[in-house]
Amino acid sequence: MSSLSELRKRHPDNFGWRLWNVWGDGRLYSAYQCDAFADEPTFTAGCSHGNDVPSDACACGVHYVTNTENFFTTVEYLNNPATAWDWPLWSQVYTFGAAIGGTTLDFNEGEFWLERPRRCATYRILGIVLPGLSSNSRFKVLSALVLSSPRQQELAARYDLPEVHRHKAHLAERYGVPIMTGQYSIGDYGNLVHAGRALEQKLDKCDTLAEVASLG
Ligand SMILES: [Zn+2]
After folding, report:
1. pLDDT tens, 126-178?
2. What global pTM score does this model have?
3. What would the DSSP string read from start to end of 176-187?
4. Which of 169, 213, 163, 196 is CA-nearest to residue 40?
5. Total structural domains in the chain?
6. 76 is in which domain, residue-wise?
């Protein structure tokens, strides 16, 4: 008998946050590799180079940011109209999860997320945060400022905010994890999993990360 907090203490490098987008059918897909869909709460990265993921020989793996504050501070930065990327912001979703098996640092040495992200082969989603509804107004500002390219306009038409909120029920059903919307403080995100009693009770029975992965 263990608990999530004990598992985190034993495996401090194996828990972290990821940025995803939501597809039209309510599935999450990688914000960096748009053909990588998470059909289930357990998501495994492939490697086209024939290496065992994660390998020092290539950049493949499921990437995540271990520090909650670093993650959301960077998300804020990415959503700032002055610094925004060519990015479908209106379909963003953030997950907290467990890295199963070995982990290593990002291939890239940069600390773009205020830390150098880690990567693993398999990541088990344990909780989902949707952007706050306040991002509606932010999106309108963004639309006027940066949605100028044909691709951005096409994406805007497809994903008018709050697209992710329309998918909330689908996300809950598909991934079976607690979901928060973004009007909470960063400190609350640390307790995300505890918002889902059923999942927390299952996690309490897990002594190892492998058992977390096999929750189904
Ligand atoms: Zn590879």
Report:
1. 999 887 644 444 444 444 444 445 655 555 555 444 456 678 888 989 999 99
2. 0.83
3. -S-EEETTS-HH
4. 213
5. 1
6. 4-213
Whole-angstrom Cα distance, residue 151 to residue 157?
Answer: 10
CA of 27 to the centre of ligand 1 (A): 24
Q: Separation of 111 CA from ligand 1 center, angstroms? A: 21
- Produce one character per residue of 160-189: b if its CB has 16 or more CB atoms within 10 Å, e if not: ebbbbbebbeebeebbbbbbbbbeeeeeeb
Q: What is the pLDDT of residues 84-125, one digit of tens each?
A: 555 555 678 899 999 999 999 999 999 989 999 999 999 999
Is the CB of residue 178 less than 8 Å from the CB of residue 196?
yes
Q: Please tell me the distance between residue 34's alpha carbon and the centre of ligand 1 in angstroms.
A: 16
142 near 92, Cβ under 8 Å?
A: no
